[in-house]
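Ticket #4471: structure output looks truncated?

Reporter: J.K.
Steps to reproduce: submitted the chain below (92 residues) through the standard prediction queue, then opened the result file.
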Amino acid sequence: AGEYKNMTPADGALRKLEAFQELRRTALRRFHAVLQPSAIVCIGREVAGSLGPLAEELAGPQRVVYCPHPARAVPLKWARNLRRELHRRNIV
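Returned output as attached by the reporter:
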């Protein structure tokens, strides 16, 4: 019967928690170590700002693709644009 709220890392309350931000960076490091991806896609301005530098350090700047958040975008158009950028960079 409590009130539920959808929160994302971009919400001010979470963004201010340094321990949460470090958890995100640790998760990115671990995923990269385990998956060894050919590229990293940062979706949204908040992710670009908070995790982009680490993503570039891990994968190399040329292997990090920044995309606007698709929440208000037309999904098919957003997906096509992302795929086009991945092809342009010879990532897929």
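Triage note (M.O.): checked the attachment and the full token line is present. The chain has a mean pLDDT of 87.
Status: closed, working as intended.
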